[in-house]
């Protein structure tokens, strides 16, 4: 699709008139009409406003002319659902939501990121050794790692993760081992439904938000795992069987 078709489709799906859209992105109705007739395309600033208004990437607005990949981990960014977001909620098409969440870069150590990625890459096409070698060659070529010194926060996020890890270990949950790492996890994939004592089934997470967490084997053995999830506001600890089945809430604590 061309830009003119994309804008027309998004506008009509939202039930907006050309006047309505013009008001939202601070242009004239005639400007919107020219976009949809293919006479002109929005400038960069207006594309950003349209991206935020329709919650799609600028790449989508332009008819997806570029193949986007996360500039931290190299994952293909094939649609807006996997893209990170800036602190104001706008999509950021340079990063995936695992590497960049609400304006924060979640990885400061390349080896930690490689360890996480390799677990998801091993399969029919990649051995662990091949996956690790591939990532070690790829990551230094990506923009985030090339500009790490200017993009990083000076260790503030790592200090926050360290504080969270200490808080969670200090809870001394019976059977849960001491751990040293929290990874970025998207709510959609870890938002389990727990049954409360009153019989209600409850989910605690936002599917679209990125959290910090880890999965740990129980010290007593068996087929259940501990799941740890946290952010600025809470700590959640649960147990479950393989693939998150039969979850039980152990602790939900406001910070």
UniProtKB/TrEMBL annotation:
Keyword DNA-binding found: yes
Alphabetized SUPFAM superfamilies for the sequence: lambda repressor-like DNA-binding domains
Pfam families: HTH_3 (PF01381), Zn_ribbon_2 (PF12674)
Domain of life: Bacteria
Domain HTH cro/C1-type: 7-61
The protein, known as: Zinc ribbon domain-containing protein
Entry keywords, A to Z: DNA-binding
């Amino acid at each position: 699709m061309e830009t003119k078709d994309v804008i027309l489709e998004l506008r009509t799906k939202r039930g907006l008139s050309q006047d309505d859209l013009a008001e939202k992105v601070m242009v004239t109705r005639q400007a919107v009409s020219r976009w949809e007739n293919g006479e002109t395309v929005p400038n960069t600033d207006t594309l950003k406003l349209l991206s935020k208004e329709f919650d799609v990437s600028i790449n989508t607005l332009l008819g997806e002319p570029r193949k986007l990949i996360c500039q931290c981990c190299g994952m293909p960014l094939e649609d807006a659902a996997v893209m990170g977001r800036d602190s104001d909620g706008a999509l950021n098409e340079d990063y995936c939501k695992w590497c960049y969440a609400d304006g924060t870069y979640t990885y400061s150590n390349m080896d930690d990121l490689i360890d996480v990625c390799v677990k998801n890459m091993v399969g029919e096409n990649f051995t662990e050794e091949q996956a690790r070698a591939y990532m070690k060659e790829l990551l230094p070529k990506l923009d985030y790692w090339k500009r790490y010194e200017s993009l990083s926060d000076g260790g503030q996020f790592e200090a926050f993760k360290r504080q969270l890890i200490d808080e969670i270990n200090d809870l001394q949950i019976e059977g849960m081992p001491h751990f040293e790492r929290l990874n970025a996890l998207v709510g959609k994939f870890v938002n389990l439904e727990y049954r409360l004592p009153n019989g209600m089934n409850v989910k605690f997470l936002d599917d679209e938000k990125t959290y910090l967490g880890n999965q740990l084997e129980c010290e007593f053995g068996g087929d259940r795992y501990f799941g740890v999830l946290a952010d600025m506001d809470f700590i959640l600890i649960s147990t479950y069987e393989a693939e998150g089945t039969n979850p039980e809430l152990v602790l939900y604590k406001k910070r």
